[in-house]
Amino acid sequence: MKEINLMPQSDFLVAAARSGDIVAINQLIKLWQKRIYNFALKYFGDHDQAMEVTQKTFISMNKNLGKLKDDGSFKPWLYRIATNYCHEEVRRQQKKWVFPFMKVQGKEDQSKIADTESESSFANPEKTLGNQELKDLLKKALATLPEEQRMVVIMKEYEGLKIREIAEVMAISDNTVKSRLYYALGSLKKRLDEWNITRENIHYEL
Amino acid sequence: MSYKPTNEQLLAYLYGELDADEFQRISDYLEAHPEERAKLQELSETRMIFNELDDEEIPSPIVVQSEHLHSEWSYWRKYVAVAATLLLLMTFGWLTGFGLHYDDEGLAFGYTTIQKGLTEAQVAGIIEEDRGIMMDYMRSYMTNMSDSLNSNLQVLQASMTNEDLIKEVVASEKQKLMNDMIAVSDQLSDDYREIMRQLIVSFSNNYQSQRIEDLNSIQAALTNLEDATYNRQVELEDELVNLATQLDAVIVSLNNR
């Protein structure tokens, strides 16, 4: 799995940034913005929303860095900010008034997504799977997870946080994290089986 | 062996986040239960597949411009902007010599020194001056005319031999005199028109109320001027008649001689 080990360098930068060093702050943002952006992007599957969360996260980071007690816990602290803004963004989107005929997300949409997919190349297992096509399907699969499971999976699989760190970020117990991860992986596996995606057919063309 | 790890424990095992004891215990369990191992293996494969989803580059990187000053600066920024705009306007006004002036006659503004419209006295002065010039011109013209008549007379007196010649000369002189008179009167009216036009143009720049007053006074002055001109013309004609009579008298005395 991807293990992002920025901690030693981050520690040093966090200390400098906390003392108000603008270069260190920008360096810290440079190091982390891609991670936070991708975290939010996988969560929302939407560039604009991901960008919104990323910007808010770093503005908040810059403002509240002084309140961080332990330089070593910068990473979970940063993800906690991002997670809060993700939740806020979800609430904001729900509050947003949309014309009924413009509403994209509905009850029938889930089944519609499933329908379209059965018509895709997976109806024919012999057919190889394009790289972009696979990525789009993986994104869709992530999108079908309940929010709290999706958040945990992204933090574990793509952001490389430890179970203990995820628990800290989301203010839940270690066991809840493990349980959510377990069910999430199970759902994702089920989805892959439905679409007939296996390691064999994705590596066929690689 | 009745030991059966929980789903949570199996998951921690999958991610390698167990202490050595527990890890060993679950390893042993999976050794004994290949179907459980296979299930865990499937989850591991699912993770592998989802690992295909790569990071994307951030399209517009974020940069922080200033540090803690930021919030204070954003508060003061609008006031600074207003002050800067005022300063800019003042500098611009100072550079271009823009000025304002207010007195009993009203508000006046303009670049460099403020020029006010003409006062009534000034207008009267201009008209008076103009009238003087016109009278001087007419006086000098009449002097010239009498001079030329005198010289003609002298010529006539010098060559009194031919009566017909004298008559002819007198007639042609009379005609010439008449033509000149007509030309002079034409020229005079042209000049007046031009002067009036200039006056009106300069007045149009003045305030509306003042302009109406001034126009009224111009109108009065114009009437006076016309009267005066008319009088002058009458005088001129009288003089010409006198001259003609004198000329006739001269002719008669010549004939008698």
From TrEMBL, chain A:
Residues 137-185 form the RNA polymerase sigma factor 70 region 4 type domain. One of its GO terms (molecular function) is sigma factor activity. Gene3D superfamilies: 1.10.1740.10, Winged helix-like DNA-binding domain superfamily/Winged helix DNA-binding domain. It holds the Pfam family Sigma70_r2. Residues 28-95 form the RNA polymerase sigma-70 region domain. The keyword DNA-binding applies. InterPro entries: RNA_pol_sigma-70-like, RNA_pol_sigma-70_dom, RNA_pol_sigma70_r2, RNA_pol_sigma70_r4_t2, RNA_pol_sigma_r2, RNA_pol_sigma_r3/r4-like, WH-like_DNA-bd_sf. GO terms for biological process: DNA-templated transcription initiation. Keywords: DNA-binding, Sigma factor, Transcription, Transcription regulation. Belongs to the sigma-70 factor family. ECF subfamily. This is RNA polymerase sigma-70 factor, ECF subfamily.
UniProtKB/TrEMBL annotation, chain B:
The chain crosses the membrane at residues 79-102. It comes from the Bacteria. Keywords: Membrane, Transmembrane, Transmembrane helix. It comes from Roseivirga pacifica. This is Zinc-finger.
